[in-house]
Amino acid sequence: MQKIQTIAICLSILLTTTNLLASEGTVQQVSGDLVYVTGMNGLAPLWSNLTVQNGQDTGAKLEVIKELPELVIARVVEANGTAVNTGDAVVLSSTQSDASARKARRIVYATRVDKNPNVDGALDDPVWSRATPIRGFVQRDPNYWMPSPEQTIARIIYTDKSIYFGFECLVPDSSQFIANNMRRDSEISGDDNVQILLDTYNDRQNGFFFFVNPLGAQSDLMLSNEGRTYNRDWDCNWVARTKHYPDRWTAEIEIPFSQLRFKQAADATWGINLARYIP
Question: Across the chain, what does the average pLDDT equal?
Fold first, then answer.
């Protein structure tokens, strides 16, 4: 079982105001920066702006990034110093029906550090505490876009020479994960594994795909033609190490910038997809 985890003016103003006042939902659950809201299907289309109501105070600002049959899923864009809790009321602030379909649904940040971590899989170097934890991994199957029951936490840091990824993969019992391969570029798609897809030009045309299983086996490939073509013969010079604990396994990964193609910029924006496959 796989879980893997944008007319008359007066009349228009009147109708919009009426709809906004009537559009209220309730927080069903929160996972990382994702907020699952009931009661707003059909009222809050993709890219709508929502506001959480915490009693008499105005809480977090949200943006709708996914519509499901009985839920809308929004990401927190401004926390406003308040937590979002199950049962909170949510109101529609505005809609943005003309937003680009290529707009990023979620945003993560890499933290620059002066000293690189020791890549041994432990994630215990002090530099990792500076990274913003990435939570809220969602399932692809069987419960599409719902939170995964087995939590995954990722972090990203970088130096002048490399970008580093840290993964914490929680499991009820670390002896239960499935991993059968240890060789480089072996077929690990059936193993428990973490995945990194880097679209370094942020054009959704080409990318670099990396896989690591709990035994530290590494696999990589290069994507082109919007992901329809891939090159398994591409071999990147990168490092991955893993560790096992009673309730989790961890992966620490270093990818040198020299192994990637990208535009040099002071503030670069890359496309990225982080995933965990659980057999």
Answer: 84
